[in-house]
Specification:
10 copies of one chain form a homodecamer. The longest helix of chain A has 20 residues. The first copy, chain A, is elongated. Chain A has a single domain, classed as Alpha-Beta Plaits (2-Layer Sandwich), CATH 3.30.70.1060. Helix content of chain A is 30%, strand content 33%. The model of chain A has no long low-confidence stretch (mean pLDDT 95). Chain A is an alpha+beta fold. A 4-stranded antiparallel β-sheet of chain A has the order 2-3-1-4. The N and C termini of chain A lie close together (9 Å). At the A-B interface, helix 1, strand 2, strand 3 and strand 4 of A face helix 1, strand 2, strand 3 and strand 4 of B. Chains A, B, C, D, E, F, G, H, I, J: Pathway: Aromatic compound metabolism; beta-ketoadipate pathway; 5-oxo-4,5-dihydro-2-furylacetate from catechol: step 3/3.
Amino acid sequence: MLAMVQMNVRIPLDFDKQEAERLKTHEKQRFQELQRAGKWRHIWRVVGRYANVSIFDVESNSELHDILTSLPLYPFMEMEVTPLCRHPSSLHEDDR
Amino acid sequence: MLAMVQMNVRIPLDFDKQEAERLKTHEKQRFQELQRAGKWRHIWRVVGRYANVSIFDVESNSELHDILTSLPLYPFMEMEVTPLCRHPSSLHEDDR
Amino acid sequence: MLAMVQMNVRIPLDFDKQEAERLKTHEKQRFQELQRAGKWRHIWRVVGRYANVSIFDVESNSELHDILTSLPLYPFMEMEVTPLCRHPSSLHEDDR
Amino acid sequence: MLAMVQMNVRIPLDFDKQEAERLKTHEKQRFQELQRAGKWRHIWRVVGRYANVSIFDVESNSELHDILTSLPLYPFMEMEVTPLCRHPSSLHEDDR
Amino acid sequence: MLAMVQMNVRIPLDFDKQEAERLKTHEKQRFQELQRAGKWRHIWRVVGRYANVSIFDVESNSELHDILTSLPLYPFMEMEVTPLCRHPSSLHEDDR
Amino acid sequence: MLAMVQMNVRIPLDFDKQEAERLKTHEKQRFQELQRAGKWRHIWRVVGRYANVSIFDVESNSELHDILTSLPLYPFMEMEVTPLCRHPSSLHEDDR
Amino acid sequence: MLAMVQMNVRIPLDFDKQEAERLKTHEKQRFQELQRAGKWRHIWRVVGRYANVSIFDVESNSELHDILTSLPLYPFMEMEVTPLCRHPSSLHEDDR
Amino acid sequence: MLAMVQMNVRIPLDFDKQEAERLKTHEKQRFQELQRAGKWRHIWRVVGRYANVSIFDVESNSELHDILTSLPLYPFMEMEVTPLCRHPSSLHEDDR
Amino acid sequence: MLAMVQMNVRIPLDFDKQEAERLKTHEKQRFQELQRAGKWRHIWRVVGRYANVSIFDVESNSELHDILTSLPLYPFMEMEVTPLCRHPSSLHEDDR
Amino acid sequence: MLAMVQMNVRIPLDFDKQEAERLKTHEKQRFQELQRAGKWRHIWRVVGRYANVSIFDVESNSELHDILTSLPLYPFMEMEVTPLCRHPSSLHEDDR
């Protein structure tokens, strides 16, 4: 099941810098774990913003919800989820 | 140079059906040509809508503009272009 | 896989009345077929508008896309799809 | 009387964690009480967000107002209420 | 059951003038019938626009839906329905 | 002179509870004074929100401005003012 | 009674040019009549658009409604009305 | 050079009352100075809000920018600037 | 006097192709005339859209209004005008 | 590669004044460095707001992202990036 997730991160100006760094490190570890597992298929940065466009490939909506809401930076994120499906014209196997 | 392009297609209800089919066939050919050339990196359908989310990888903004505005269905499309760049945490080579 | 679909119908004022009735009859038949199959789980009318709120329970995003885009009234509809999942507090089995 | 209520919860980052847990537990109890009473007919989670889509079946607008504004998490919620009615095509008795 | 309905009327510039007058006359008759029956409690014009703010007092959402969608000018209207309830501070009996 | 005023109240979560109660009591007194004077013609609650829809009948825009900005809860309110006038079809004297 | 009215004019591309000129001439006559009468106090063009910002000074909302809806170009206009009142700091008599 | 400036003032609830009064007094002085100089041509209050609609007549955009950003209440204001020009139909000399 | 103008062009699908080409040729001539005169200082295309971002440097708002509304493609354009002024940090003479 | 960047700056009212001045000085130095390098091609102030419209000419989206996110005032800015390309009608070499 494919979905695009657009994530915007807003960490308050007065949030503890060290704690923020710790959360970002955890976020990166979790992200790479999910990338290796094939769940978090793609990620790109949005130019000029602390934001990304991501493509997920998961078993179910519940799995996606659990993945997203347990991200270390989740409390600082606004998320928009767009359900996608394979485009019949695509020649690429991995645009499934 | 990476960019996300969100395309929405609106063909008027009274538009000639045969002409529409002819344009869709050309659109598909042009799309696959660009996909094979590595310019149109990804495409996914947006569930429930005549719309797609696409990722382009081009030499320049001008090349992207020329590709998009010469699509056979361009006169029926609304497009939103979001400039992207590689995410430093990504382990995938092709999320460049 | 659960999703809320909000459908708004706009049939142009000058559209052929008989053809509109024919399409509405087909829409109703197709709807009831999908309701019996358990795919179109719920439907409610939005007060004062030619619109509905529906809950779908399907195998995949692709199945949902195929169902929605093949509805007889689809060319006259604007759709908004919101992916849902079971709420852990719910006591009802069928809010799965 | 049927209504869809879309609830978004925003608990401030610096809100006391224990108090938040206490309120969530009360919210769940109150929700299940109302679900058993048949007032809160359905609830689903919105994927990736601390939000739900709910269907209420109440005696009157006043009853709905009292139910919603006395929820333990009400001070942290934004609510959008959409009045619904039974769809004449529905075969399901409980889409009343 | 109380509701505010905000109605905006847009009759196309090229719509037949006589037919428009006929519909407006029917609209007025139907309005006054509903006003006398106590269903359409209040109506006010919005300054500078072909629009009104109305208060309805009906038995159910279904009754409101049937009233609104059978108005002679309904095909030309956009409607926004806001569910209301009596304000506990009001001293007026008829703000029920 | 008639106007609809839509008032939304937002009292910050950490605002002193006793002071809030004191302001609400004053607000109610002031409201009923204005209702008795015939200035604040109608008030209804918006279901599920700390908000109301009100109809004012005043001598002038200046009088309305003075009434609204001197309400005890004014500093916590967002207001939208829509100028209205009597609808010529209305049979009710008091929809003046 | 003071009000700002923002008027946007949209005459369809295929509207009869002569009829449009005739309406514009009538509009100008009616405008100057109202300006001389002191009702239409000010008018300014919005740069780059077929639009104006106007200040009216009328007896009542009803008078304003009648003036606006009887303008020759009214069927082609979108209007936004903002009720104003004299600013207490103003030294100018005619900002009443 | 004419411009409409719409100013909305938001002073935080916990801002020092005396300091706010001091700033408002300075704002009024500065306003009247500019009004006398013919720069701040008109000002009106927006009913029910701490906001105004103003017309400026200045030498240049830079002069307008300097005037607006040096207002004592500027840090609490949101401003929207709309460039205007004389309307050719106006009979009033001072709508220049 | 500097201003940014964002122009979006929408030529209807069924508009005469030859007439459109004729208007585009005139538009280009007029543009280059204004560019040579130093009035139309800059122009850039917006990627993927029939739109541009332009910078004008004119004597007055009236001059800008006359230039914009007399463009051959003006009837097909939506324009947004943003008044600008020189940035004090700029080292470039021509960012005046 | 050309892009328009619209930057809005919001420094909280209670932010340390000296630190703000220090950041603004650094911002100006960094800006002029980038202007001299030909990366930050143009900058203009938006009248009445702490905001600018800028044109960048960079090697890649990644370079633009690095430039923008490392600006001293970046944590206080909201940015909107619009990809541009040379307009074929332009006679100016530097509108490349």
